[in-house]
Amino acid sequence: MHNNNVITPTQPSLRGSKIPNGHVVLNSKYYNSLVSKSLTGFGLKLLFDDTLGLIDCYPSNSCAVIIAHEADLVAESELQVKVQKLSKFADKKVILAESTEISDQYFKRLQLKMLGSVVQVIPFTCVQDIGILIHQLGNSESKSYVKPTKSLPVEDSLLSFVLLFPGVGEKKAIELLKTFKSLSAIINAPLNDLAKVVGNSTAETIKTALLEEG
């Protein structure tokens, strides 16, 4: 069955063009991948471009994203070259880095290297997290997301996204992360489990907002 949210990777380069609302530009290497499928779940239309080079995704015109999986983090020198080149792209520069038991020490080293830079390092634990984060990055310009001036610690980098949930302040956001550990776990949590952390009213507001976006 044809997916109307996906545009095949045969189109010319989108360089210099404005990304339409509701669209995300992905590197063609992610065509028909789990990453692209995680994004179409949000109703986004995917524009595939085979000229993006080291950039994996443009959630918006002003944001460039590199996705670093466990193997990329372990191969530190190659990733470092990508990070150095990333500084030439967009206003907001983001590395989505896979957090696993194996990659943890490399992830922490990457964060230390990025301290004081304008590159934000955000952890993900599963492919669904990638879809959630890219979706939020694309929407953040029209919401109350504050662009960081330096790389944030793990907790703060995820905290900025949890704060986008309606009715969630810093205290509730911290409790949600402590309880559920990841964005995907928060989004997939049953209403009753959310209510135990943030109360019935806020839990219902979060679920309603997620249904409207999904």
TrEMBL record:
Matches recorded under Pfam families: HHH_5, PND
Superkingdom per UniProt: Eukaryota
Matches recorded under InterPro entries: FAAP24, PND, RuvA_2-like
MF GO annotations: chromatin binding
GO BP, one annotated term: interstrand cross-link repair
A GO term from the CC aspect: Fanconi anaemia nuclear complex
Protein's name according to its UniProt entry: Fanconi anemia-associated protein of 24 kDa
Fanconi anemia core complex-associated protein 24 pseudonuclease domain location: 17-137
